[in-house]
Design a protein that fits this description.
By secondary structure, the chain is mostly helical. Helix content is 64%, strand content 0%. It has six helices and no strands. The protein is elongated, with a radius of gyration of 26 Å. The N and C termini lie far apart (90 Å).
């Protein structure tokens, strides 16, 4: 594989290592089997295709999981604009708040039921 491809892995070797045929490997990034075959036979791989290979096979991002709705977030994370550690911390805080809210809701329901029972008692 040519060094001008600027990739830290050989797509053909990776495909073989993953035990995928050309169709399976290349279609995951939107390249036809015949196009992938040409790339594997030392045809220069364009930078956008190399980036798709990196996303799919180095970072493990399934490209069909990127939607119009989540693309801005994926882009921000990939570019480093969005700090994933901060996001993880915020998610943990939100989960803690949700658990506390659930507990409060259960306690409120219990108190409401107790108040209802008191109000229904004859004097």
């Amino acid at each position: 594989m040519s060094t001008e491809n600027n990739v830290s892995f050989d797509p053909r070797a990776l495909r073989v290592q993953l035990d995928l045929n050309q169709q399976e490997f290349w279609s995951a990034i939107g390249v036809t089997q015949s196009g992938g075959s040409r790339y594997e036979n030392d045809r220069r791989i364009p930078k956008p295709v190399m980036e798709l290979l990196r996303l799919r096979y180095q970072l493990g991002i399934k490209l069909d999981g990127i939607t119009e709705d989540n693309a801005p977030v994926v882009k921000a994370i990939a570019s480093g604009e969005l700090d994933t550690e901060s996001m993880r911390s915020n998610v943990e805080r939100i989960q803690t708040l949700l658990r506390a809210s659930e507990n409060l809701a259960r306690e409120a329901a219990t108190l409401s039921a107790a108040a209802e029972a008191l109000l229904q008692r004859p004097n």
